[in-house]
Amino acid sequence: RVAARYAGGRVLRGWLVGRWDGDVLRFRYAQREEPSSIHGGSSVCAVEELPDGRLRLIEHFTWSTRSGSGVNVFEELLPSI
User: Fold this and answer.
1) Which of 11, 13, 19 is nearest to 43 (CA)?
2) Each residue of 24-71: pLDDT tens digit?
């Protein structure tokens, strides 16, 4: 099981809940945006391990409350020394 909270930019507060099964992460999200709108959707992510051991997520998302879909790529950062 996966659960998270997030915020940043126009997103005042966001939540996601899902399941990580092998190399696939699936979740639904809802977020409150400025000035006072609430939007949500669903995502399916491929989870890859990079050669140096870090993780990369390739997210394919689709909005449920407005038109649109897209792809985000997230890579784990190396620890700073």
Assistant:
1) 19
2) 999 999 999 998 899 999 999 999 999 999 999 999 999 999 999 999
For residue 35, what is the DSSP state? T
Distance of CA 39 to the CA centre of its chain: 14
Name the nearest CA neighbour of 17 among 46, 48, 47, 40.
40
Pair 33, 41: CB distance under 8 Å: no
The answer to whether the predicted template modeling score (pTM) of the entire model surpasses 0.90 is: no
Amino acid letter, 77? L
Q: Mapping DSSP to helix (H, G, I), strand (E, B) and coil, where does residue 58 land?
A: strand
Closest CA to 41 of 76, 75, 11: 11
